[in-house]
Design a protein that fits this description.
Blueprint lengths: L1 H8 L3 H11 L2 H4 L1 H32 L4 H11 L1 H9 L1
Helix pairs in contact: 2-4, 4-5, 4-6
């Protein structure tokens, strides 16, 4: 359960937050603020995903049997930047 929470549920908060901001009406936050929030969430997700991908790669190289969890987290964190490209 620890691995599922740490590597699936916590990284899934970034796509959920991104989609929540993207689904918010423009009248609520304003166009500039909404776009800036979405861009910030996507950039933090990119940086975190790259760090976790490197950590997973180094874990595989060292023979860590749990390295695939880090790669799974990186894949989940790739959703907001991909959604930003699709929606933009």
């Amino acid at each position: 359960m620890k691995h599922k929470f740490r590597h699936i549920i916590l990284p899934a908060l970034a796509p959920a937050a991104f989609l929540l901001v993207a689904a918010t009406p423009v009248e609520t936050l304003g166009c500039f603020t909404r776009g800036l929030m979405a861009l910030t969430i996507a950039m933090v997700s990119v940086i975190s995903g790259l760090i976790l991908a490197v950590k997973g790669h180094l874990g595989r190289w060292r023979g860590d049997p749990d390295a695939h969890w880090w790669v799974l987290s990186a894949i989940i964190l790739a959703i907001p930047p991909a959604a930003l490209l699709v929606l933009g």
